[in-house]
Amino acid sequence: MTAASPVLVFLDPAHPEGRIADAGQPQLMATDLGATRGDGVFESLLAVDGRPRKLQAHLDRLARSAATMELDIPPAADWRAAIATAVAAHPAAEELVIKLLVTRGVEGAGRPTCWVSAALPGPAGRVQRENGIDVLLLDRGYDSTIAERAPWLLMGAKTLSYAVNMAALRYAHEHGADDVIFLSSDGKVLEGPTSTVLLAHIEDGVKRLITPQLDTGILPGTTQGALFAAARNAGWELGYGPLEPEDLLDADAVWLVSSIRLLARVNHIDGKPIGKDPALAQELTRELAAMLAEEDGI
Amino acid sequence: MTAASPVLVFLDPAHPEGRIADAGQPQLMATDLGATRGDGVFESLLAVDGRPRKLQAHLDRLARSAATMELDIPPAADWRAAIATAVAAHPAAEELVIKLLVTRGVEGAGRPTCWVSAALPGPAGRVQRENGIDVLLLDRGYDSTIAERAPWLLMGAKTLSYAVNMAALRYAHEHGADDVIFLSSDGKVLEGPTSTVLLAHIEDGVKRLITPQLDTGILPGTTQGALFAAARNAGWELGYGPLEPEDLLDADAVWLVSSIRLLARVNHIDGKPIGKDPALAQELTRELAAMLAEEDGI
Q1: Shortest Cα distance from A194 to chain B (angstroms)?
Q2: Which of A116, A213, A246, B153 is the most exposed place for a label (fewest CB within 10 A)?
Q3: CB contact under 8 A, A34 and B37
């Protein structure tokens, strides 16, 4: 098995534990609205030593995304059973990338297509986790108040319509960077195409961990949520935006956090080095990475 | 065969005329980036009596969308061959909905998945074509100058990431309307989720057909293009936006035009009747519909 051919487990009323399907064969209908309209929702999470991390947070977010899209999906227990089946098919894997996928289903059928995939992680995430990343600031085109006004824009739902997110990453790669931080059209810091933005400020010995506020329409980050809970327990102060690019450039450290790559320290933003004291930034990164390593089932 | 189970023809180097596939069986890999990221492009067009309409215009737009997405797709000749194979499988069909689909392909494979589907049209388009439609104005969230500034937003490409377009249509249906006209955040008229906006003004006997200008990031409409060419030949004046909601409310007629539903007259926008003289609006609709019926292979 390679990362490109995962274990597939479809949610299927006839198979309470999920139906294992051959990932080497076509499994989706060509008229599935996931494939023809990007019409669906998903989650990606990490399993370590057979144990999915932050599973309830991901199931909760999947349910919220589905509700935003008016998709009626199976209950959490069915997802948990299918995930357990997928993980059990990889008894020796240390780390697994678990994806939960829901499409609106085959055109005209009126019921979603739901499956779980479990694959070995690729090498890119680990490299970026260790070396940090260079980031470009790109305009997401929406102002920071749009989410409240325009529910049809599906802000805050993790939909399958990720073409813009993928295009932004391609744009970054073609311009010598690894990743992107999106800004709103009114200049507020939003999120990465597949990650949440975090920054740290240290003042008079007080450590403060800050993330953009959610009412800008960004996705609520499960890793950010877990890290905030752990950092608060460790005595950090917590803060929520609004943030502007200056706040990133002034920070003692900036990270993009996500469930698979975990904590990726930002070395440069638009070519400018981030964090006046690299040793401090690395120390903060180690401290937060240790919290994440201990985090379990939050 | 029903509308939900079309004829499928995959583009395949081993089959120069295209490879016919069983639409009743799964044909897509679960790791295809079309299904997992809405990462691809498409076109929809009508074939009448076995003859695809505006085929070159659709192939040109598919190629432009693919170039915007940095997708390397087969040449037009391969698409024409596959379309001919798909159409030939429906010898008795008066009208066929032809879809051309491209995804970025199976994760890691590095080559797109390309197919053509040909299905009988559903009844909804014909009903709306005959009775007209009620429309809501909804904010698309982008300002009208974003396309030039932010190529990563893929404005003007017809991508598979249509979740927002589908959500806007659901919102309209739940609020008593049939369709949507998107506005930019700075109040300019853009397009429908699956159509182009046209309006007519008659002044001193001069008929003027107007559509929003393309630099707002809207999709260049193949039906609008064909209608503009035909209307110019028939002595109409042509105009291009910027348009604001007032221009729609003041028009003698407003339409949403697209390749399958063709010309759908807008009866109400946000509950307000459109066109002071319904008889005139119907006459204009008949005149343009006759042009479209004659339009062939433009």
Answers
A1: 12
A2: A246
A3: no
